Amino acid sequence: MPGNEGGPPRARRGLPAKREAIMEAALDLFVRQGYAATTLDDIATATPVSRQTVYNHFGDKETLFRAVIDTHLNATLEALHAPADQPVTGPAERPVDAESQLNDLARRLTAIFLNPRTASLRRLLQSEGPRQPHLLELWRTRVAGPVWSEVISQLTRLTHAGALRIDDPVRAASQFIVLVTGTAWQITEVGVVLYPPPPGVDGEQLDTAVRSCVALFVRGYRQTTP
To answer: What would the pLDDT profile of 134-147 be if each residue is shown by its tens digit?
Structure first.
């Protein structure tokens, strides 16, 4: 199971290395020190760049955090989309293998969920969310929302192809995401989420568990809706 989908460590195409370094330092400090306690001076010292350089790139701390979120979103959606969406054939042609396509989607979701940047943002929001609700709202609207939309879209495509019978794609997407990411969390959680899996948990075990969740989901939605 891949371990680097959904984020850096290396600078991405078209993103200047200095800007990337500032965002990486900012996220690390936000997690370790807390969002409110971290200043632009702290971030400049950790990069290292001048405080003026941080201002020139981002202006203020919230804009910097938004940039971290947006960069993570772009990488997350790229991971969900790549490779290009598999074509879905109608029931009159070659039958669609819903389980195979959803296993591929589940592997991508798991890689995103266990990515170090995702884990860092999750820890930040868990600790800072009650005190900084606008950070949680940014995550909901700029990361969680688009990811859910992508899962809903893929389930809708499989339903239109006759591979599944889903009357409520939003509810089904919620069930799918909870099954996949909840299983990944249960298997790899050791105080903080780590990837690669901690000692005693190998990629094959994780893959087997996630595939089992997908099989359960597909069996449920192949049944005729009452």
So the answer is: 878 877 887 788 88
